[in-house]
Amino acid sequence: MNWNAQEVDLYIQQKEYIDTLVIPLVKIETTAEKMKASASSSDFLMYLAKFLEAQFKGRMMFTPPASYTPSFDAEQIVRTIAADFKDSAFKHTFFMTTDPTLATVQLEEGQVIWLPSIPIESMEPNLKQKIMEDQLQQILPIFTEKWAK
C-alpha cells in the first residue's frame, strides 16, 4: 500500500493485517558532480519500493521518501522518524536506503536496510524486472526474520 488518501482509508479499515511500514530514505547530493549518481540511486530505490509494494500490498505500507541533503544528520532523521512511528499501529518499521553512511545504524524501533545502488535508468524493462527480483531475494530474509518474531 502507498501513502495516499485512498490506500490510507483502506489501511485504517484493515490495519490489523498491515503490520509493516517501509520508509525510503533518499540522499540528494547538491554538487553538480554528484547529482547524476544521486538521481540514479533515487531512481533505483523508488523503483525497488514500487516493486516491493506490488509484492506485499496487503502487508506493507510505503511512505513517500524521506529526502535529505548532505548537511543534514541523516542518522538523526532516521531516529526521529522511527520514534515518531513508535506508537503507531505498525509492528515493524523498515528504512530502505542506498546511502552507505546509514548501513550500520542500529535502532531500538525499526531497522535500516542498506542496498548498493544499481544504475537502472538505461536498462531494458525485462532486465530491470530481473534486477528487482534479485534484490527481493536479498532483502526478503530480513523481512521474514522480523515477521517471525
From TrEMBL:
InterPro entries: DUF2487. Pfam families: DUF2487. It comes from the Bacteria. This is DUF2487 family protein. It comes from Savagea faecisuis.
